[in-house]
Amino acid sequence: MEVETKLLIIAPNPETFLRHMANTSTILNYQLRKKGRRKIRDIYLDTKSGDLKTRRLALRLRKMNNNYLLTLKGKTVIYDWGGVERLEIELPWSLKSVKQMNRILTENQIPFIFSENLYRTLNPVNYLYQLTDIEIIQDRETRRLIRYITHKEHPEKILAEMALDIVSYHLQNLLIHQAEIELEAKSSAGIKAIQHIHTFLLQKYPDALRSWTLSKLTTGLLLEKMSQSETLSSFLNDQNFLIPEMYERMLKNLNTLYLE
Fold this sequence. Notes:
This protein has a single domain, classed as Hypothetical Protein Pfu-838710-001 (Beta Barrel). A hairpin with a 4-residue loop joins strand 5 and strand 6. The relative contact order is 0.20. It has helices spanning about 15-20, 50-55, 95-105, 115-120, 125-130, 190-205, 215-225, 245-250, and strands spanning about 1-10, 25, 30-45, 60-65, 65-80, 85-90, 135-150, 155-170, 175-185, 210. The chain is globular. The longest helix has 17 residues, at about 190-205. It is about 30% helix and about 40% strand. It contains 8 helices and 10 strands.
């Protein structure tokens, strides 16, 4: 299980605020230690008949820098303070992991099996796009800065991780950016840390941040759905970031994802 919380950056210039957070070294009694940057591409898959969606599961191939991961996400619990707990099985890239994921999919009655060629190919992303028995439901990119969160009194113990993200959703004729702060607990003590930081940042920057419990996958699918009936370009700023008003519209349209 993973426990995380997310804050959307709704400031007029999201990248400026993101740089401000990147230069922050302490929050309350917690230290933020720089841990590099990552370039991430996430490919989400489903069967043609939507078996994963029906079971509230999400299957992902992630390319992170030059490494790959296979991930299955599941049931979600939302806490009052804005945290989210969800089942997550993430496997390092190997033939053993491909076989293990196949077993998990079979146990969940998902009628899809990864060919071992997925592991053997030099470009798994291109390989997935050539398959005819699956549907790629989302292909997105994330530029991420990582900060480890430790307590000032115990700097050797990593409690949580802060990700400063710029997410790019590729819709049919539109590129949409979203800036966010993601806090993920790395231990039971880390849950308390991310709760404290989440609450503090919301109180300190009420005009620049808002809590958001929807996953990146759900957010992107909702944007895709809304783009079929609305002109989303009118809800973007000059840098193609979503403006704050759009998020309220998205929440009002959330049920449309599950009524088909």
